[in-house]
Input
Amino acid sequence: MSSSKDGKRFFNTTAKKGEIHELKQELKTPDKAKKKDVVKKVIAAMTVGHDVAPLFPDVVNCMQTDDMELKKLVYLYLINYAKTQPDLTLMAVNTFVKDSLDPSPLIRALAVRTMGCIRVDKITEYLCDPLDRCLKDSDPYVRKTSAVCVAKLYDISPELVEERGFLDNLKDMISDANPMVVANSVAALSEIHSMSGKPVFELTSQTVMKLLAALNECTEWGQVFILDSLVDYSPKDSKDAESVIERIIPRLQHANCAVVLSALKVILKFLRFVSDEDFKGPMVKKLAAPLVTLLNTEPQVQYVALRNINIIIQRHKEILQNNIKVFFCKYNDPIYVKMEKLEALIKLANAENIDQLLLEFKEYSTEIDVDFVRKSVRAIGRCAVSIAESAQKCIDVLLGLIETRVNYVVQEAVIVIKDIFRKYPNKYESIISTLCENLDTLDEPEAKASMVWIIGEYADRIDNADELLETFLETFPEETSPVQLQLLTATVKLFLKKPTEKPQEMIQLVLSNATQETDNPDLRDRAYIYWRLLSTDPEAAKDVILSEKPVIADDTASLDPEMLDGLLANIGTLASVYQKLPDTFVARVRPAVQLAAGDFQAPTLDDGGAGQDPARAEQSAPVPDMPDLLGGLGDLEVSAPAPAAAAAAAA
Output
């Protein structure tokens, strides 16, 4: 604590006039202790955002010292300001080279690390010889630092790295006796591989055995590097895969969740190559315990674990099929953890555990958090859609929730019941009367659109369907686009199923509004299509609008198989949290390298027609005048068809 309090005296957020000149004079003092304090002041000023670049020559002169702390401070300053003073940075090259030959391994490693962090073009030429020496240094600390430096140099000048044979040096270092050197070499090769896009690091069975040997003695992050690299290895046969899995299994008990997830990723990959079911079955059971353990940590780690688990169980439900209770939400769980647990429960639902899950979902539907309640109600509907045997149980629970008369619960229940009707047409329509009793409570667009769809689809079974639709038509111009589209289609369905006087009046009203009183092109175009169909060939209109549609499936959370493979290969990384492939959010663009003269060529952007007038707006096509169609609708003779066989998918 005392050292941190002493350090605070160097930080001053307000710049004083003439302070740079004072620091410049103080840097020339021969007193080493005082000089160190002055450099600390410079670093502190740099840290709080003050421009201390004018002190560059004076700070560089302080490099010639045996004081390790002072040398670190000067190197830190150099890394920060080298890009603004590329020519002056060349003054420090001789000191870097000299330090790379220092008897102290700490100073040798510090020199190489700093040179690797300075992104100045001319410096790279002088970095090669010290780096070459340090890669073969007798001290493992220097070697492991140099391995990372190769990756940094490759980012600046790939041609130079290949020309000097540094890649071959890294490959040789995989056989190093020190496990941290091995881990850093693997990390550097993996980084170079991702930057170059070409295979620079091919794993063989001998190499894999060397990596596994180093695994036990590495630090936790070294283990992550090695495990992540093993994902790219394809075992020769089932025995080879089993051998690797047995060596990695102990990592599942590690205290660091990153090691656990990386080990899990490798094991899941290698299990695909195992043909012995007697080996695979017990191994899959062993994977559940570490995942369950991750759910007993702090909420932030739980969230990361749950995002990864939700990817894993899309491919391997059997791992956690018997552990659904660990996903039950606790009263003090943060909302982001509750949402992910709910998603996991939906994926793990089956005919055996649905009763238990429905009790949980029903309990969640009485919570305070509105978003969580909505998702809980939707979870019941998704279970009904995905598990046919449980549909009736789910509907019973939903009807019980509707009886609570809680506004947002009723609206979500209507939305999911609409999906159940689409999945199981002509099966559960007896509950429509209960839904119709709650029309007055519907004020959200999605709930309104769902209810209108139900009325239109089952208009022939609802005695007062015309009256129910009429209540919605009164506010037709003010409704949102989804509701207007559903009202249009539902009114046409009602007219086709009950071609009486009142539906004729309603359809004239809605077609008139949809073609003349709206700016929405989708609504207008659909209205004209219906209008022309009804005016020219009512039977064709029935074939189109009342046609049998395919049933829906619960695919709201299922990933594309190719994308799922990519995410499973990136378990434990940011990609698994975003649930996006790395290429979609990580730019593989090399940052600009500062030239010695301080100049660089700015990238030119293709404006792609940006010079066009932004105010130019696309004009809507003029609405054709069709006076004869509305008048012809009243004379249509349309016989009422048989009950609709299936729910309309698009309507």
